[in-house]
Automatic annotation (TrEMBL):
It is a multi-pass membrane protein. The keyword Ion transport does not apply. Coiled coil: none annotated. It comes from Amycolatopsis melonis. Belongs to the ABC-4 integral membrane protein family. This is ABC transporter permease. It is found in: Cell membrane. The chain crosses the membrane at residues 21-44, 186-210, 246-267, 279-305, 326-346, 352-382, 403-425, 629-652, 679-703, 715-738. Residues 194-311, 632-739 form the ABC3 transporter permease C-terminal domain. PANTHER family: ABC TRANSPORTER PERMEASE YTRF, MEMBRANE COMPONENT OF TRANSPORTER-RELATED. Keywords: Cell membrane, Membrane, Transmembrane, Transmembrane helix.
Length: 749
């Protein structure tokens, strides 16, 4: 009879071994499914960016060398809080539409005054008046296909123009942007963190499932060794038994991965959901993952045979376990030092791989430090408490700290991940803000002095046609400087009347500031005898007109510091600002109409506002919150399951001991209380440590992004509290398990 036949025979006749194998297979399936999902996320982002590469943005090259055939401009528009990708194109003189290769999903090239829109944008155009949205783009003549959109609900407009109507910063290309898209770096980082943080609890669940019958298996293998089996034969038996359950689990994980991908396609990221085809993992990587996880499980099972191979009588004989050494505590500072060095050198050497390796070492160090902490807690129990349940729990923690820590291992990692996430999120939220100098309800478009007059004239004509009283004004930008270029010192100043500054800016000017003639307004008093006005930073500087007053204003927001307002009447004669911003008030119901009035003459130049400046920030924060919640829920569920399985395994391992105690008259409630104490108190100590380490890792990861200080929130205590709660919940299975032991004859053991 070969090893596989023996494994099948054992599974067929032993109910406990069969239960352990089923749970092991489930754990391997979960681990395989999670890794397949997390590993495919960078490829998913790359796939959808590849579809949208023609839309411009950050993921395109300017094409191959060749004559310019297409004037191209990509910008962002907004409607009712939704982002619209706007692509404005025009053919160069002498180019026919047939000379331009169309990207996948683009049915035709729109002519001047025409537009091709995505289905979602088409529905918006039909549902709202043309003055609010439709007049921005022109006449719809076609619909973009799914293969040309970043995500199904993306709002995109491809609008045609004549060459002279294109904005001044237009790109001249041989065709639509092409090249190879790049994956989202943030989601790639999160996927690696997720693999490290979620894979380990999954493997802990597998290990806990495998330990359900550890004592019985050791006893069985010891008997086989005494019967004459060689160490190699025993190893092959365990490898066959483990390979059977792990292999089935890996195949099951592969089978459920499409369902996980389908669920993930409904989770928004960067403003939209996904296509099911986005989650395509290379076949080679899929095979590697499906094979490597069972190999790790089998390797762990074989390494666990050391005791049986060294001493076959271990399962039936006594054995004094060596106490754990203090040097285990050095694993955590060593891993922390490696992580710190990796973080400090990441910017200079691009060592994100070393940072992830340091994170993995920190996660792995918990398996070394945790049992020592558990043993120390058990020793405290034995020395201080005298209640029966406390003494039983303390003796268990002291005698088998590795086995006792196994119930808390997944919880410790979940608390670590939660503390790290709740360190980063409040800090990222505190960074949100900023923006231009204009009020929240103001819309603006940047241009130059050659186009500003035309945009103002046409926008105001459109507003008048729509029956609105709002009017656009041109606001120039100049510099108040000292010294000669390039060694200059100075401040930026907006050229606008005081009355317009009161209505349009956030500087806090009031009508009282506007009495007294032309002036310069700022948060500090400038000596105009030392400062001159220049149209550009390195341009010719000329003194302001005589009689210009300087008035100090207390700014309401710190981000406005250093900016000034200068009245047009104070500018030197002949000085014309080079950079101009066309600004229009757009409050309440007039907002979308004003945006439409500006969009026509702007011809694709991006129209901004303070709330849209914050759009990407809030979108990223929403994505991070969503991913954090999903990840912590998954980690918590895995941790709770591993705690429950480990507790049940602890009862099964000690069936003979518990049976003897019950036969001697020990109440089940005392044993159940001891088991709960075994789970809760080590979990409390370990989770506090994990929370502290998680905060430290969060600070380190944030330092790679920004050098400002971290924001600590009271919510940092939540993972520790929830971790102890999950440990107690997982330990609650001890009472049913003990009652089952009580119901079975002790002679069975």
């Amino acid at each position: 009879m070969n090893s596989l036949q023996i494994a099948l025979r054992v599974l067929r006749v032993d109910r406990r071994t069969r239960t352990s194998a089923i749970l092991t297979a489930v754990g391997v399936a979960v681990a395989t499914g999670l890794v397949l999902l997390l590993a495919t996320l960078p490829f998913a982002t790359q796939n959808r960016e590849q579809r949208a590469i023609w839309q411009g943005g950050n993921y395109y090259s300017r094409g191959t060398d060749g004559p310019a055939k297409l004037l191209f401009n990509a910008s962002k528009d907004y409607f009712d809080g939704k982002q619209i990708i706007r692509v404005d194109v025009a053919l160069t003189p002498g180019t026919s539409p047939g000379a331009i290769a169309l990207p996948p999903g683009v049915p035709q090239l729109p002519g001047p005054g025409e537009t091709v829109v995505s289905p979602a944008l088409g529905r918006l155009l039909q549902a709202h008046p043309a003055a609010e949205l439709g007049d921005r783009f022109g006449k719809p003549v076609g619909a973009l296909g799914e293969e040309g959109l970043r995500f199904p609900e993306q709002l995109v407009a491809l609008t045609g123009h004549t060459p002279d109507a294109m904005p001044e910063n237009v790109s001249q290309l041989p065709g639509f942007p092409g090249g190879k898209a790049s994956p989202d770096p943030l989601l790639m980082l999160l996927s690696w963190v997720g693999i490290i943080v979620l894979l380990v609890p999954s493997l802990v669940l597998v290990a806990s499932s495998a330990r359900l019958t550890a004592t019985r298996r050791e006893r069985r293998l010891a008997a086989i060794r005494l019967a004459g089996a060689t160490p190699g034969q025993v190893t092959n038996m365990v490898a066959a038994e483990t390979t059977l359950s792990a292999g089935i689990g890996a195949l099951l994980g592969l089978l459920i991965s499409p369902a996980l991908h389908g669920l993930a396609s409904f989770v928004p990221w960067a403003g939209g959901t996904w296509l099911a085809s986005d989650f395509a993992l290379p076949i080679g990587l899929t095979v590697f993952i499906v094979l490597s996880i069972p190999v790790l499980v089998v390797l762990a099972g074989v390494l666990g045979l050391r005791r049986v191979l060294k001493n076959p009588l271990f399962a039936t004989g006594g054995h004094t376990k060596k106490p754990l050494r203090w040097w285990r505590l050095l694993a955590l500072p060593a891993a922390g030092l490696f992580f710190l060095v990796a973080v400090l050198t990441a910017k200079d050497y691009g060592g994100i791989g070393l940072v992830m390796a340091g994170l993995f070492l920190l996660v792995g160090s918990a398996a070394i430090v945790g049992p020592w902490v558990t043993s120390a807690v058990g020793g405290t129990f034995v020395r201080i408490w005298r209640r029966p349940s406390a003494l039983l729990a303390g003796r268990r923690l002291r005698d088998d700290p590795k086995g006792a820590y196994r119930a808390s291992a997944g919880i410790v990692l979940a608390v670590f991940a939660g503390s790290m996430a709740l360190t980063l999120l409040p800090t990222f939220e505190s960074m949100a803000g900023g923006g231009r100098s204009f009020r929240d309800e103001v819309l603006y478009v940047d241009t130059d002095n050659q186009h500003a007059g035309r945009i103002v004239e046409q926008a105001n004509a459109a507003l008048q046609k729509y029956g609105r009283s709002e009017r656009a004004v041109a606001v120039g930008k100049v510099y108040l400087v000292q010294g000669q270029a390039p060694n200059r010192y100075g401040h930026r100043a907006l050229v606008m009347t005081c009355a317009d500054a009161v209505k349009l800016t956030r500087f806090g000017l009031t009508p009282e500031n506007c009495t007294g003639g032309p002036g310069v307004f700022g948060d500090s008093a400038l000596d105009l005898a030392q400062y001159k006005v220049a149209a550009s930073w390195e341009g010719t500087a000329t003194a302001a007109k005589s009689g210009t007053r300087v008035e100090t204003v207390r700014y309401p927001d710190a981000d406005l510091s250093g900016s000034f307002i200068i009245d047009p009447a104070a500018l030197p004669d002949g000085l014309t600002p080079t950079d101009v911003t066309v600004v229009a008030p757009a409050d309440g119901a007039a907002r979308e109409i004003v945006r439409t009035a500006l969009a026509g003459p702007a011809a694709g130049a991006e129209i901004g506002s303070r709330d849209q400046y914050l759009f990407n920030q809030q979108t990223e924060l929403g994505d991070l919150r969503r991913v954090t919640v999903i990840g912590l829920i998954a980690a918590g569920i895995l941790a709770g399951c591993s705690a429950a399985v480990a507790t049940a395994g602890s009862v099964m391992d000690r069936r003979r001991t518990f049976g003897a105690l019950m036969a001697a008259g020990t109440p089940v409630r005392v044993l159940a209380r001891a088991l709960r104490m075994e789970a809760a108190l080590p979990a409390l100590v370990a989770t506090i440590g994990a929370g502290i380490v998680g905060v430290g890792v969060g600070v380190g990861l944030f330092s790679m992004v920004d050098e400002r200080g971290i924001v600590l929130s009271p919510w940092l205590l939540a993972p520790v509290v929830l971790g102890v709660g999950v440990a107690l919940l997982g330990a609650s299975v001890c009472t049913p398990a003990l009652k089952r032991v009580q119901a079975e004859p002790l002679a069975d053991e």
